[in-house]
């Protein structure tokens, strides 16, 4: 949190005025300066207890540096957490603090706002030409490998599941009991790797992209920063926005972009895909896999 502009400015001001505080308020300020991450996830009583002072002392400290009280003082630190400038445990504690305060409506509003913003920001940076170029590479390949680990494993498998209704040689990796680099052992310039990872970047994915490039594969990469190691090596790179008040990255824009990419693959494909999709679903109906009244 120290790296965010607002909270950093508060900490700098607090440090500058430290000598002007009363001895008790100085104890509270010292604790805040040494443990800034605690402010956004702790009540005034929790901070007071940790600093070994009374809650009123913490309030006076906040007023000393220009705030109406502790809640006003804490707001920039909470906002930094909401925007992702904290690690996962801190953000989880912040969510629990919202529940304690009964402010669930604000959480809902934040989730909706960030979800819509993620989708808007992601597609604002994507052009139809980019999607069409990636789609052509995918359709014209021999094999397509879709790689995601952690939360992105389910995103990769969801894309693969949808694509297999019309595409034949598409594989979600890592396969059970395998590793991504093993799954790519015999891939070459005829094949495509779709790789997904966001901060903190997974080593398995970064290594797989590096191996894929060495073997001449075409790489389609989805990540959350233009500086991402997998975007730097990608033939077709897409930056996705994954901000959320939650303690984990959002998958909404990743799923939306993957679904859009798949729609472009269908659009550039031959008549084979529509025919395969029709056959796939006809067989499902014949086998009674869909509930019918």
Describe this structure in words.
The protein is an alpha/beta fold. The chain folds into two domains: about 5-95, Winged helix-like DNA-binding domain superfamily/Winged helix DNA-binding domain (Arc Repressor Mutant, subunit A, Orthogonal Bundle), CATH 1.10.10; about 115-285, Rossmann fold, CATH 3.40.50. The chain has 15 helices and five strands. The chain has a five-stranded parallel β-sheet with strand order 2-1-3-4-5, sandwiched between helices. Helix 2 (about 25-35) crosses helix 4, helix 4 (about 45-50) packs across helix 5 (about 55-65) and helix 10 packs parallel to helix 14 (about 250-270).
Topology (SSEs and partners):
Elements: H1 5-16, H2 23-34, H3 36-39, H4 44-51, H5 55-64, H6 70-82, H7 88-101, H8 104-124, H9 128-139, E1 144-148, H10 151-163, E2 170-173, H11 180-183, E3 192-196, H12 203-214, E4 218-223, H13 229-232, E5 236-239, H14 252-268, H15 272-286
Parallel strand pairs: 1-2, 1-3, 3-4, 4-5
Helix pairs in contact: 2-4, 2-5, 4-5, 8-14, 9-14, 10-14
């Amino acid at each position: 949190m120290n790296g965010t502009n607002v909270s950093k400015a508060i900490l700098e001001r607090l440090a500058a005025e430290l000598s002007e505080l009363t001895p008790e308020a100085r104890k509270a300020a010292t604790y805040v300066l040494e443990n800034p991450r605690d402010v956004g996830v702790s009540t005034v009583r929790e901070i007071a207890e940790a600093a070994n002072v009374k809650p009123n002392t913490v309030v006076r400290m906040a007023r000393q540096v220009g705030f109406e009280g502790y809640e006003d003082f804490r707001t920039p630190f909470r906002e930094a957490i909401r925007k992702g400038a904290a690690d996962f445990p801190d953000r989880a504690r912040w969510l629990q603090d919202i529940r304690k305060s009964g402010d669930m409506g604000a959480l809902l509003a934040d989730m909706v706002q960030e979800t819509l913003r993620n989708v808007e920001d992601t597609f604002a940076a994507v052009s139809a030409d980019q999607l069409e170029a990636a789609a052509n590479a995918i359709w014209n390949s021999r094999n397509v490998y879709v790689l995601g680990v952690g939360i992105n494993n389910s995103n990769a498998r969801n894309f693969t599941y949808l694509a297999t209704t019309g595409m034949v040689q598409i594989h979600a990796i890592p396969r059970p009991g395998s590793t991504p680099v093993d799954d790519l052992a015999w891939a070459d310039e005829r094949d495509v790797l779709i790789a997904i990872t966001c901060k903190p970047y997974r080593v398995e994915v970064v290594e797989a992209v590096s191996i894929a490039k060495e073997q001449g594969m075409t790489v389609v990469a989805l990540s959350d920063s233009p500086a991402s190691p997998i975007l730097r090596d990608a033939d077709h790179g897409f930056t996705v926005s994954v901000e959320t008040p939650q303690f984990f990255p959002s998958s909404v824009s990743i799923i939306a972009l993957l679904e859009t990419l798949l729609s472009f693959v269908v659009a550039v494909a031959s008549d084979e895909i529509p025919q395969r999709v029709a056959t796939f679903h006809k067989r499902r109906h014949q086998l009674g896999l869909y509930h019918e009244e």
